[in-house]
Design the sequence.
């Protein structure tokens, strides 16, 4: 059975880190006889430069046909002044919505080897293992109407719409409850139900679902408190489920608890478990092209892809073990560098993971 993986390197450090993950994928493909075939396509700023659109039809077509997608990152200052509909981010958002990748899984795991890289005290973060389940195709990111309009007073007004249907809430809720069942059986739903009606409904639906998952303990938290609790006592959380925008913000915060956003993968899945996998960090234009970016989040995203979309647990575990091994060896890219570490480039880190495999 041949399965296809679409590689979307994107912009900034995207091509450098995806290149390392690609080598790792080729290696496990051979070693575990996975029968994977690979294709590449343009997205984001790279696609704007070549084809004047952040999501070319050919890319979307290849994405629809692929069994899984590995994406680097999109965006950069070069395209920041373009109108909203033409910006690189629209490529990413278009893939998410066209493929209905509504479930975004963002684990924040502290690698014991990197405990000192966190800005929080080691006792606060040691052993940290949180999963943020972010709704990815709805909420204020996609709500209509949206835009900037001219008021009668002559002033302009910007507006967006924060909305969720019951079915959208229910399907992301189920993903989160099921994830909690597989883990520590605790689910915290984050909302702003003291102010926003849409999240009053969110809370109601989460409560409704509770009876289907009697083994999971459900709690609710307002988003401002959740932001505070994440830095105060992050280990109280197991799985967090929240809407698109709150999830965007809280997942960056959770990532940073672990010391480096350069270590964290993510998966965006639809109801057929087709998925797009990407590192949580962005395109980091400030260090693009210098060969110093950390490829590990992308490599771990490739492992996640093998596990969730391709059912290749052994190959996934082998990659994860190889990553752990290079960290044990003291190899560090600049973002996770600490005393006693050996500083390596993007390519050296990728090569080290290959040899560890
Ligand atoms: C993310 C990013 C994206 C988002 C941007 C690049 C559109 O911040 O994946 O978290 O806001 O979802
Ligand atoms: Mg974000």
Sequence:
């Amino acid at each position: 059975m041949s399965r296809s993986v679409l590689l979307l390197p994107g912009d900034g450090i995207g091509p450098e880190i995806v290149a390392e993950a690609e080598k790792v994928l080729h290696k496990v493909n051979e070693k575990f006889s996975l029968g994977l075939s690979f294709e590449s396509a343009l997205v984001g700023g790279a696609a704007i430069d070549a084809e004047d659109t952040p999501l070319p039809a050919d890319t979307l077509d290849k994405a629809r046909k692929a069994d899984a997608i590995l994406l680097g990152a999109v965006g950069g200052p070069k395209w920041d002044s373009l109108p909203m509909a033409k910006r690189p981010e629209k490529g990413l958002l278009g893939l998410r919505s066209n493929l209905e990748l509504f479930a975004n899984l963002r684990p924040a795991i502290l690698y014991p080897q990197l405990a000192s890289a966190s800005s929080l005290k080691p006792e606060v973060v040691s052993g940290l293992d949180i999963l943020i389940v972010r709704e990815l195709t709805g909420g204020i990111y996609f709500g209509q109407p949206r835009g900037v309009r001219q008021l009668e007073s002559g002033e302009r007004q910007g507006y967006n719409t924060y909305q969720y249907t019951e079915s959208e809430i229910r399907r992301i809720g189920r993903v989160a409850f099921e994830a909690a069942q597989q883990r520590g059986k605790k689910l915290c739903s984050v909302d702003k139900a003291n102010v926003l009606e849409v999240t009053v409904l969110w809370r109601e639906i989460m409560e409704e679902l509770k009876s289907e998952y009697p083994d999971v303990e459900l709690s609710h938290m307002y988003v401002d408190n959740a932001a505070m609790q994440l830095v105060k006592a992050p280990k109280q959380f197991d799985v967090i489920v929240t809407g698109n925008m709150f999830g965007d913000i809280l997942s960056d915060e959770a990532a940073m608890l672990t010391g480096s956003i350069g270590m964290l993968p993510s998966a965006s899945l639809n109801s057929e478990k087709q998925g797009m996998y990407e590192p949580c960090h962005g395109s980091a234009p400030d260090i693009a092209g210098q060969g110093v970016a950390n490829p590990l989040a992308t490599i771990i995203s490739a492992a996640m892809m093998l596990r969730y979309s391709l059912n290749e647990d052994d190959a996934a575990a082998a990659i994860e073990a190889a990553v752990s091994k290079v960290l044990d060896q003291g190899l560090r890219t600049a973002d996770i560098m600490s005393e006693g570490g050996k500083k390596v480039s993007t390519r050296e880190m990728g090569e080290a993971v290959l040899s560890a495999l």
Summary: The pocket of 3-isopropylmalic acid (ligand 1) is lined by residues 75, 89, 92-93, 248 (CB under 6 Å). The chain has twelve helices and 14 strands. The domain at 129-257 is CATH 3.40.718.10 (Isopropylmalate Dehydrogenase). Residues 173 and 206 are 6 Å apart (CA to CA).
